[in-house]
Amino acid sequence: MGPLLAQFDPILEGLMRAIWLLLTLNYEVYGIMLLTLFVSGVAVIIASVAGIPLGAAVGLNEFIGKRPFMSLVNTLMGLPPVVVGLLVYLLLSASGPMGPLQLLYTPTAMIIAQIIIAAPIVVGVTVSAVGSVDKGIRDKALSLGATKLQLTLTILKEAKIGLVTAIILAFGAAISEVGAVMIVGGNIRWFTRVLTTAIVLETELGEFSVAIALGIILLLIAFIINWILTRMQWSGLRR
Amino acid sequence: MALIEVQELSKTYDENVALRNVGLRIEEGDFLVVVGPSGAGKTTFLRLLDLLEEPSRGRILFDGIDTASPNHDRLAFRRQIGMVFQRAVMFNASVRSNVAYPLRIRGIKNDLDRSIDDALKLVGLEGFEGRHALTLAGGEAQRVSLAQAMVFQPRLLLLDEATANLDPRNVSIIESIVAQINRQRHVTVVMATHNIAQAERLASKVAVFSEGALAEMGDSSEVLGKPSELLISFAAGVNAYTGQAYPLDDGLASVDIGNNVRIEAATRKKGNVTAFIKAEDITISTTPIKSSARNTLKGKVTGIIDLAERVQLKVDAGREFEVIITKKSFHELEINLDSEVYLNFKASSVRVV
Q: Which of A32, A121, A128, A131 is in the most buried spot, having the most CB atoms within 10 Å?
């Protein structure tokens, strides 16, 4: 029993530590939490505002190149964050095309990287959500006198469950990724350090219980956000 | 001026011709029933009338105005037309919100409650406002669809096999509502159905479609009174016979439908007539039975078709009769091909036109 318990020690200790950090309102930990929420939240909001209309347009219309476009989107959905980070790094680095903006190692750079990670997920899932709305809804809305815009809004409303799923998946991908924010944010204390990069750092320092505490806090945040989104997803709906 | 005038209307999907060169006029106040077997182009015709699709060729005039004219918005025409589809699809929201939809998208805010109440009252679903539309039974959902199509007071109501999937009770409810809409509210109705009996009950005019073309059109009594071979050939679920009617006593007539088969019908008509008997109105027995049914014909089973919980029989009794019975009766009577059976039906089950 002894050695086995010892294996779990860091986890138990991490759990206690997480509770301790949260209850004592640890200034640095709350700062990291807020930045994490801010970066991933803003990235997902921008990705959704752009991605849902684009996904709807693609899903509701037939055009030449739709299939290649969807193959591209599906591929981008599985894009490794570290590759995205590298790309954004090259764009923003002093010698890159957007170098003069001096965005590298700022939260803005991290948001840009996470938008690139989140957007294909929003677009891809929106296309499939919109496509799975009963074709009879389209006929019905048109026949009852809907304009093109009203038709699109009606279909989006019917696809609400799928659209919220798109947002949930995009948020999950953004908040849990470490590769991109590490490269373009630099994990700078008090400035660009988020939960995932902090976990990497603490693990490298051998502070396993702190790393686990941060991991538990990350899970907690993800759970709360998903709980809120899931409530939104099913409000006023049946089936 | 006709409310709708259709000229040389054709619709082609890829290689398939769904509608070919249809021309007809629909006058204000008409109740036109479009009949034909499935695949005859009825649905395509109605979808074109509702301007849901664009014709490959030909024109549709609404109030004498070309609906494809660049000076007129198709939406403005479509907003004067209500349509009920075969399959009732509801928005994922309350019944109230479903019925309010056509008004909301027209920006109508005044008297919303009264309009919704009126529409639900019309279809006999008062008090259903708060129900969630996805919890409705099929017949109720179809009636809500009708309320949706009527709430904006259309001038033309299109029904595409709107009762095809419903139980008999809801079929007759919807039929009487639609008849009322046509007669009391003076809304022009175009209804597609493969059910000749329904055409006979409702139509002022009948158009027969076959393989995408308009085969014949005229007043209901004209078309159904002297039904063509074509019309009879797809009268699914209905037996139709042309023959000579000879009056008997007490409001009955004997109709000679050929091949020495005479049936009694509750009619005072005489001369050339068409007699319709619904397949469900005929009962089968294996021995002659004494009953109130005026008609008993001996015949032989020549065909058995399994229709899920029911069975359709073809019986040769001099003329061929189509009969639909429950599977339970079918098994209890131990019917096989070539079984000798007796057909029984009431004189009042025979509709004579």
A: A121
Query: Strand pairing partners for B343?
Result: B284, B297
Residue B20: CA atoms inside 13 Å, Cβ hemisphere, count?
10
Of A137, A146, A160, the CB nearest to B105: A146
Q: Measured between alpha carbons, how far is A51 from A177 in angstroms, rounded to an integer?
A: 19
CA-based Rg of chain A, rounded to a whole angstrom?
21
pLDDT in tens, B50-75: 999 999 999 999 999 999 988 888 99
Res B51: pLDDT: 96
Residue numbers in A near B134 (CB within 8 A): 238-239
What is the pTM assigned to this prediction? 0.78
Cβ–Cβ < 8 Å for B236, B194: yes
Q: Is the ipTM of this complex over 0.85?
A: no
Nearest CB to A136 within list B81, B87, B149: B87
Chain B: nearest CA to A46, how far in angstroms? 27
Q: Measured between alpha carbons, how far is B60 from B9 in angstroms, rounded to an integer?
A: 8
Residues of A in contact with B135 (CB under 8 A): 238
CATH class, B237-352 region = mainly beta
Bridge partners, residue B277, by sequence: B239, B350
Domain B4-231 architecture: 3-Layer(aba) Sandwich (3.40)
User: Percent helix, strand, coil in chain A (nearest 5)?
Assistant: 80, 0, 20
**Selected residue of A142, A144, A158 to mutate for chain B interface (largest B Cβ count, 10 A):** A144
Tell me the CATH number of domain A10-234, given options 3.90.190.20, 1.10.10.10, 1.10.3720.10, 3.40.50.2300.
1.10.3720.10
Question: Measured between CA atoms, how close is B306 to chain A, in angstroms?
Answer: 30
- The pLDDT, as a whole number, for residue A1 is 44
Q: Which residues of A touch B54 (CB under 8 A)?
A: none
Which tens digit of pLDDT belongs to each residue from B76-108? 999 999 999 999 999 999 999 999 999 999 999
